[in-house]
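Renewal narrative, Specific Aim 1. Our central claim is that a sequence can be written position by position from structural information alone. The example that follows is taken directly from our test logs and has not been curated for this report. It begins with the structure tokens describing the chain, in the order in which they were read.
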């Protein structure tokens, strides 16, 4: 951590530059004594990445930024604040602290936070930034979180960790047992040290396989921002004897879309199917990831187009956590019928359909965009159709 970067003149220089200026910064002779131009460039790029994702850090003075990869991998303030509302108590330990955004927000719900980070440089950066952000109830420790937990005699109200989802060759992994730290292997240790355990994973981990590996989850939270699933949260609560509840949330510009259901209910419920009626509904990404394909229909008084077609329909317009379309017409998926329509430009989506969007666009020369939405899908009788819609 180069403290020369924190000098007022340097900070003013960094705040005025944009990532588009990086090459000019790198190619100029050294701007400041004791600071390499590459270091300046890294600060400029990392800071700019925080503007929307981490506005508290971006708008605060004398913040020191790590490399851009640390910024890309950290939680956004939106998702960090959401998870901080899930747990509370006297003490929480964050075993994989990173840039410290999650610990920052957990500190609003706990009296004491311990932030463990194995990278010495990053740990120093986080400690400095907490001072500037006036976070006084977070203790930063430069240590491997699991090793620290093994040595500690302290027990916590909650343990939080965000395991690495890449192996030694930097390939993505999809099981808890392949993460680092190995969640399955360390589960007895983790549960012996806390009342609640909260684990963050990427959307790539399959919900069903995750349930089998952990075997004691009480809540699953699937969090999306602007219809893009960012993380899945797994909460184990030793004091809670309830069925597994799945909560989905999608933060969009004008609203927060929420939908919750019980896993057992989803397995047992049956849904009615229908041909396309007046309105078509497409669940948001968090709901689609959750697998709430049957539970959502009766809640909003909808019918599915087919058992394996995760699109819904109704005669009258309903409030819905996803996109709503008004159906204009339905035609069979036949070359002559499609050519007759003269489609030149449209937004194309496939659901339970044998051909990809790319293949359909190429085959029928349909450009992307416009106000028309085409859903290529399968009805309950097996017919392949195209549903022409306008967005509500």
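The sequence written for that structure reads:
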């Amino acid at each position: 951590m180069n403290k020369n970067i924190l000098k007022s003149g340097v900070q003013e220089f960094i705040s005025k530059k944009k990532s588009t200026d990086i090459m000019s910064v790198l190619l100029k002779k050294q701007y400041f004594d004791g600071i390499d131009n590459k270091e300046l460039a890294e600060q400029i790029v990392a800071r700019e990445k925080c503007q929307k994702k981490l506005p508290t850090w971006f708008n605060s003075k004398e913040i020191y930024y790590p490399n851009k990869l640390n910024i890309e991998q950290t939680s956004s303030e939106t998702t960090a604040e959401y998870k901080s509302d899930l747990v509370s108590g006297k003490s929480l330990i964050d075993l994989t602290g990173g840039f410290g955004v999650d610990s920052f927000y957990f500190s609003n719900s706990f009296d004491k936070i311990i932030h463990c980070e194995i990278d010495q440089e990053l740990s120093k950066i986080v400690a400095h930034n907490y001072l500037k952000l006036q976070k006084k109830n977070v203790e930063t420790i430069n240590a491997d979180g699991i090793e620290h937990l093994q040595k500690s005699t302290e027990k916590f109200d909650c343990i939080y960790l965000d395991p690495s989802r890449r192996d030694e060759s930097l390939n993505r992994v999809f099981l808890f047992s392949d993460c680092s730290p190995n969640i399955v292997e360390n589960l007895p240790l983790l549960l012996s040290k806390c009342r609640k355990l909260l684990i963050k994973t990427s959307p790539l981990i399959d919900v069903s396989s995750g349930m089998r590996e952990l075997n004691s989850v009480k809540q699953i939270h699937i969090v999306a921002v602007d219809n893009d699933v960012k993380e899945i949260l797994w909460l184990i609560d030793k004091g809670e004897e309830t069925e597994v509840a799945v909560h989905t949330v999608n933060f969009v510009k004008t609203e927060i879309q929420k939908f919750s259901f019980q896993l057992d209910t989803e397995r047992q419920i049956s849904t009615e199917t229908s041909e396309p009626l007046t309105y078509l509904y497409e669940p948001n990404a968090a709901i689609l990831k959750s697998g709430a394909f049957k539970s959502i229909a009766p809640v909003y008084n909808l019918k599915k187009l087919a058992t394996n077609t995760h699109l819904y329909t109704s005669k009258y317009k309903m409030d819905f956590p996803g996109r709503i379309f008004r159906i204009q017409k339905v035609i069979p998926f036949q070359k002559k019928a499609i050519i007759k329509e003269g489609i030149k430009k449209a937004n194309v989506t496939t659901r339970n359909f044998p051909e990809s969007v790319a293949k359909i666009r190429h085959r029928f020369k349909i450009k992307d965009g416009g106000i028309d939405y085409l859903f290529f899908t399968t009805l309950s009788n097996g017919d392949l159709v195209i549903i022409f819609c306008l967005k509500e």
